[in-house]
């Protein structure tokens, strides 16, 4: 079982790609050393293959990274399933994970994060949660987004250390995390990881 995240950047033409594209490439390179497992195409669309337990955390990190720049956002679909064919590029690979990701991406309407797996029960359990997660994260401001991205990618650090790394006051970091619902989001990430292990381990 693998997870495939398909996404595109909303309002990408409003912001110079040099502001967000190198950061997104750097993040993908840190997630996986295998460059065949991710691709950015058509300028503002992307696809990345990840472990199923990590998929939601990675999707939220992508959201926070993109929204660190003003005026742009991102919508994503997580597809869980199998990989039956490995192409030279991820966009040439195939399997139920790719199909589920592509189909659910086509069906995104008012929210910006959706999931499709081999289990209707799993989808029915998580998609209402993801709608709420979308509602919260769609309203993040750049400062909140940057702080949440840094916290999620440096979970081993204390808030005080994060504040130092970002050259911000600890109170500013704490307020940004509260505004963004960071603690609650981490609970959802951990719940998702636990449920995927229970469902498909």
Secondary structure: elements and pairs:
Elements: E1 2-10, H1 17-31, E2 38-41, E3 45-50, H2 55-66, E4 73-81, H3 96-106, E5 113-116, H4 120-137, H5 142-153, H6 159-165, H7 170-179, H8 182-200
Parallel strand pairs: 4-5
Antiparallel strand pairs: 1-3, 1-4, 2-3
- By DSSP, the count of extended strands is 5
The largest pleated sheet is described as: 5 strands, mixed
Terminal-residue CA separation: 9 Å
Query: Mean pLDDT, nearest integer?
Result: 94
How are the strands of the biggest sheet laid out side by side?
A: 2-3-1-4-5
Rg estimate, integer Å: 16 Å
What is the ordering of alpha helices and beta strands? EHEEHEHEHHHHH
The proportion of strand residues reads 15-25%
What portion of residues is helical? Answer: 40-55%
Plain-language structure description:
The protein has 201 residues and is α+β, with helices and mostly antiparallel strands. It contains eight helices and five strands, in the order E-H-E-E-H-E-H-E-H-H-H-H-H. It has helices at residues 17-31, 55-66, 96-106, 120-137, 142-153, 159-165, 170-179, 182-200; strands at residues 2-10, 38-41, 45-50, 73-81, 113-116. Strands 2-3-1-4-5 form a five-stranded mixed β-sheet.
